[in-house]
Amino acid sequence: MQEENAAMAAMQAHLVENQEIQARLIKQLQTKREPQPMQKDRGEILRALLVANGGKMLEKEARQKMHLSKSQFSQLLAAMQDHIEVNPYHMDKRKKIIMLK
User: Fold this and answer.
1) Closest CA to 95 of 50, 49, 59
2) d(CA 65, CA 70)
3) φ, ψ of residue 57 in degrees (nearest 5)
4) Given CA atoms 57, 61, 66, 69 in this order, what sign does their dihedral have?
5) pLDDT in single tens digits along all 101 residues of the chain
6) What's 4's DSSP letter?
């Protein structure tokens, strides 16, 4: 009987510990993350690049000048959506133009 009680107590302690871990992980996922320092630097570089080109330029040209992969550049644009807008290029809808807001 005492062995069963000890086993139940150990199981209950383990479940409580798991619930605490889950609660901590959920809280981490719910908090809004700040951009990483590298993203901030790249954002400033992109903004300076756009200013130097009159406030707008083709997405592909900006990506190539910054030497970023397509996925990295897409993540950068998503992080900067408050400052930069992306529209289709009027002469070729397949291309995109990025502009300062």
Assistant:
1) 59
2) 12
3) -165, 165
4) positive
5) 888 888 899 999 999 999 999 999 888 888 766 666 776 789 999 999 999 999 999 999 999 999 999 999 999 999 888 899 999 999 999 999 999 98
6) H
Query: Can you give the pTM of this predicted structure?
Result: 0.61
Q: What are phi and psi of 96, to 5 degrees?
A: -120, 145
DSSP 19-78: HHHHHHHHHHHHSPPPPPHHHHHHHHHHHHHHHHTTTEEEHHHHHHHHT--HHHHHHHHH
Report the distance separating Cα 15 and Cα 13, nearest Å. Answer: 5
Quick one: angle between helices 59-66 and 70-79, nearest 10? Answer: 110
> What CATH number was assigned to the domain covering residues 37-100?
1.10.10.10
Q: Which amino acid is at 43?
A: G
CA distance 24 to 15: 14
